[in-house]
């Protein structure tokens, strides 16, 4: 089932196109968004989260047309979003923060306490549930951010650089959580880390300069790198070389 349907999406900041003619379909599973700085990943995430409005094109989420106010409202109740940088009240505890976000998502009141407890447990922060956010380490704060994103059991989960600041053990646990959620729901993860994509994602979408330049499985991206195995500049793994090869091929085509 298609849960994300994007057609002819353009996003402009002033005169600059941050996303240029994006067409995309996604369903259940884990989808990785890759690309160099400024490729447009965060802009796409913000658009899917309905925080940013497209300059052109249409975005349908879980069957709701986000051009309509009512469609955005309905979609928001069913999605979870971890922004790259997120605002919070530093004096809130982890539990208060997750509860507050559940309230913003208009969750039924009687479901909130159990949902908050479960979300905090799933990110491994039970022993810090009563700690103020300002006292948390960067990795713990990010886990609190993930907890608020999943508190409503979102059918569409959008995570912008979720592994930034997580240590290796937390990364492994986080990937387990992603697999769990991605087995039935749509998860979109933006990352700089090619290895995160290799291990966790079912599908990779690569962007450069606001354009979608590759879509396929991690294996298909890695295959692009097998021809440059002796070219150390392309990366240390076949996936890194595939990533570099896809970017180079696109840039060569764009110049020609
Ligand atoms: N608020 C803004 N005002 C003006 N330009 C912006 C704004 N936000 C993003 N841009 C521009 O839009 C383009 C896409 O940026 P975006 O943050 O979506 O890329 P990204 O792939 O997430 O990059 P990064 O990997 O560095 O986070 C860039 O050229 C960026 O400079």
From TrEMBL:
Residues 4-234 form the ABC transporter domain. One of its GO terms (molecular function) is ATP binding. SUPFAM superfamilies: P-loop containing nucleoside triphosphate hydrolases (SSF52540). InterPro entries: AAA+_ATPase, ABC_transporter-like_ATP-bd, ABC_transporter-like_CS, P-loop_NTPase. Keywords: ATP-binding, Nucleotide-binding, Transport. It comes from the Bacteria. Pfam families: ABC_tran. Belongs to the ABC transporter superfamily. This is ABC-2 type transport system ATP-binding protein.
